[in-house]
Amino acid sequence: MKIIAIANQKGGVGKTTTSVNLGACLAAKGARVIVLDLDPQANTTSALDLVPGEFPSVYDSLIEGADVATLVQPTKYENLSIIPCDLQLAGCEIELARAEDHLVRLRGILHSFRAASDADYMLIDCPPSLGILMTSALAAADELLIPLQCEYFGLVGLSEIVKVLEMVATSGANPDVEIEGIVMTMADSRTNLTQQVIEEVQRVFKDTVYRTIIPRSIALGESPSHGRTIIDYKPASAGACAYQALAEEFLERHATVAAG
Fold it and tell me: Which of 2, 49, 216, 260 has its CA 20 to 30 A from that of 98?
């Protein structure tokens, strides 16, 4: 099982949208996917039609020592499961901060879980901050996927998260973690700024940037309120087509890595 943290310390960039819909599209293509909701806002949990607080969350493993395998819940979509979240996780950073192993605790519990799991991928939806939960996710992940909004401030935030990733790697907590890719989100083809931001990110990060670009889409904004993924809610929409293309590109990348 490959663990991918989906993170950006800036909120509102399509992080949860990407976690939910990339996971759903991968599952629809036959990959077995677990989405770990590590954001105390629990938006991923709600978007996959579970009620936050109704089931145990990763808090139970991080703080109380519960077996991660007991936290995995099925969704209404074949091949797609979730480790849900609730507001209890909001206090987790304070409790974790008191522990000497706070940076690597999540890594430890997921290491033993992945050995027994038959899932292909775990996608970790991280909170929009540079706190302990995000750094714990980076310490636990094999790769980092960065959703990046097509605007100027997105470029500023990108440099910050790259620095945090380098800190996690050089600290020894996870020396092998690397950027899997950058996904440009909320693109508005009508503006010059969108194209300028895309070109600048491609210039600096080159092939790390996904060819697939996620457009601004009303349907993508609406689907979570219905507890449905975009390919279930409006499968012919531009957002659905984009996430299906992103899933295909994601699988191509990982097939190449596996073959190599």
Answer: 2
Distances (CA, A) of 205 to 14, 40, 183, 200, 210: 20, 31, 11, 9, 10
- Dist. CA 167–CA 174, nearest whole Å: 9
CATH annotation of 2-259: 3.40.50.300
Contact (Cβ atoms closer than 8 angstroms) between residue 247 and residue 22: yes
Residue with tokens 């507890």: 227
Q: Provide the Cα torsion 205, 21, 91, 161; round to 10°.
A: 0
Instruction: Read off the pLDDT band of 236 (50, 70, 90).
Output: very high
Least confident of 118-132, 153-167, 176-190: 153-167
Query: Would you kindly state where each structural domain of the chain is located, as residue ranges?
Result: 2-259
Residue 70: how many other CB atoms lie within 10 Å: 12
Pick from 134, 187, 178: nearest CA to 13: 187
Whole-model pTM above 0.85? yes
Q: Residue 238's pLDDT band (boundaries 50, 70, 90)?
A: very high
* Confidence tier at 256 by pLDDT (50, 70, 90): low
Burial of 56 (0-12, 13-18, 19+ CB in 10 A): middle
112 phi, psi to nearest 5 deg: -70, -30
